[in-house]
Amino acid sequence: MSETGGMIAHLKGRIEATGIDSVVIDVNGVGYLAGASARTLAALGAVGEFATLHTEMLVSEDSIRLMGFATAAERDWFRHLTSVQGVGAKVALAILSILSPEEVQTAVARADAAMIARANGVGPKLAQRIVNELKDKAGGVTLVAGGGAAPPGGAAQDAVSAMLNLGFKPAEASAAVNAAADELGTGATLDALVRLALRKAAK
Predict the structure, then answer these.
(1) pTM for this structure?
(2) What is the DSSP string of 41-87?
């Protein structure tokens, strides 16, 4: 039986190496190996670049593993997903590799088990269990409330999520990210969007 813990909340360092489902972050000469979704690996950047990795520690009787996420929202949904019986770290990462945290939230809120079942290793019964057990995590939450629709694109949606996790109200987060996206144009990275959105929100 595994337990999750938060002894290491995040890592900031240079990307030393990446694998199919893992990344090594060098923090002051210490290399931390963390499991990661395909979405996180794509968002972090290339080997040699500096990145921030939100982390979750998985402790079991015979191992201690570190999981890493590009956003706090992805980490939060990893926790929600692994709380469901039958959903281990591998399955949770498979879901988060094909669906953003916002898409998982939407699927759960709409009881769209078929959307969850698109992930490798997730059958119809498990997908149904996921939406049934997690509906209270998403049912009362709108993706962007009171501030218009989130700007299109995964990076913009993740930027709004990041702003929400920093304590901004949905309307403030959406407006700031919209303004940043307009200024930076299409193809802006998540990091650039969040940095500019924070500056605009502070004005």
Answers:
(1) 0.63
(2) HHHH-STTSEEEEEEEEEE-SS-EEEEEESSHHHHHHHHHHHTSTT-
**CA 59/CA 18 separation, integer angstroms:** 22
CA distance 55 to 57: 7
List the structure tokens of 69.
């996420």
Range of the domain at 190: 155-202
Instruction: Yes or no: say if 196 and 180 are a contact pair by the CB < 8 Å rule.
Output: yes
pLDDT confidence band for 82 (50 / 70 / 90): very high
Decide which of 50, 69, 88 is a domain's last residue: 69
Length of the chain: 203
Instruction: Tell me, yes or no, whether 52 and 99 share the same domain.
Output: no
Structural domain count, the chain: 3
Residue 4: inside a domain: no
Distance CA 189, CA 191 (A): 5
Contact 181, 193 (CB under 8 A): yes
The residue from 69, 86, 117 where one domain ends is 69
